[in-house]
Amino acid sequence: MPAPTRAQRRRPDRSALRPCPACGHTVAKTAETCPNCGAPLPGPARIGNAIASLLAAAAFAYMAWVLFDFSEALSAFFGG
């Protein structure tokens, strides 16, 4: 197989690009906003942050529920 030419080496990888859902302009998969129209783009970082936030909120709610139930049990046990 021959070595790639200089032009082939400079050509961007098409798999690293995607269309903007708002205007259709081709943007990088790592872009947070479209450079053409400024629309926010969904990305793996945002999805990961949303999942992490949801899990943290669920863990906090569970801990609050456990502490609330234990505090009622302790006050009943100690007669308070």
Number of individual domains: 2
Low-confidence stretches: none
Please give the number of β-strands: 2
Structural class: mainly alpha
Q: Give the amount of beta strand, in percent.
A: 5-15%
Number of helices: 2
Q: What order do the helices and strands follow?
A: HEEH
End-to-end C-alpha gap: 83 Å
Radius of gyration: 26 Å
Q: Averaging pLDDT over every residue, what do you get?
A: 80
- Describe the oligomeric state of these chains in a short phrase: single chain
Shape: elongated
Characteristics:
80 residues, mainly alpha, 2 domains, two-stranded antiparallel ribbon, 2 helices, 2 strands, 49% helix, elongated
Topology:
Elements: H1 6-10, E1 17-19, E2 26-28, H2 44-77
Antiparallel strand pairs: 1-2
Could you walk me through the main structural features you see in this protein, from its secondary elements to its overall organization?
- This protein has helices at residues 6-10, 44-77; strands at 17-19, 26-28.
- 49% of the residues lie in helices and 8% in strands.
- Strands 1-2 form a two-stranded antiparallel sheet.
- The protein has 2 domains: 1-42, no CATH class; 44-80.
- With 80 residues, the protein is mostly helical.
